Amino acid sequence: MIESSSLPGDPTELRLRISFDDELWDTPQADTLERWTVAVLHRRRTHDGTQSLVAGSACPTAGCPSCTTEDLIVGEMTFYRVHLDRGRNAYWAMEEESEDLYETAQVLLDPETGSFTSEVSERLEYVGSALLVMDRVTLEPQWRGHGLAAALAIEAVHRLMTGCRAIACSPGITDLSARRLTDRSEWDRVNTKIAQGWEAIGFRLYRDNIYLLSPSSQDLEEQRGVLRGRLVELGASWRSTTSAPSQE
What is the pTM of this model? Predict the structure, then answer.
């Protein structure tokens, strides 16, 4: 069984809150770029203000009036849905939005037309016209190291990829607070591990650290099933550990 004793809670109580703030700007930029925020929440149930460690995070007394539920933010993801066929030239819209998006645009898009380059188009099935960019995926440190980022990201991708022809990401470290990453070899090791995590769900290196995934990829659906199974197993392991009777 998967080792889960270091997790701070039941991973099957994690959930996603996907939101898009429409500021109603009638501009070509707003029509081209949509910024989607995905909050990673952990549902915690408490009894009289004390967190329950009962299996499933539930109070053993059904309908207990002293129990409350709260969702704690334990991570966040940012996606951009880029419409290549409306608004302004997508290449320059991405350049204006951020350096990371500009790097993606330089690899995938034609600056003259704002569409996929002919070379990129040849690699993609025509299942949509937009580009979905997985810009950032972060989890609180205590939730890392169990493959949860990939499991959560693939669920977000599944819900946001409708109408997209490609999904892109540029794997790398986003949390620069860890002092151990000042060592170059450790930095490279962690970056490689992150890239391998995205490769596991179907992303493939295209060029210059830009990875591509087709929404029609069979790997995407298969790996979604695999990661869901691992999440269930991880949750079962956590519950069996935390519900074990104490020795007095």
Answer: 0.85
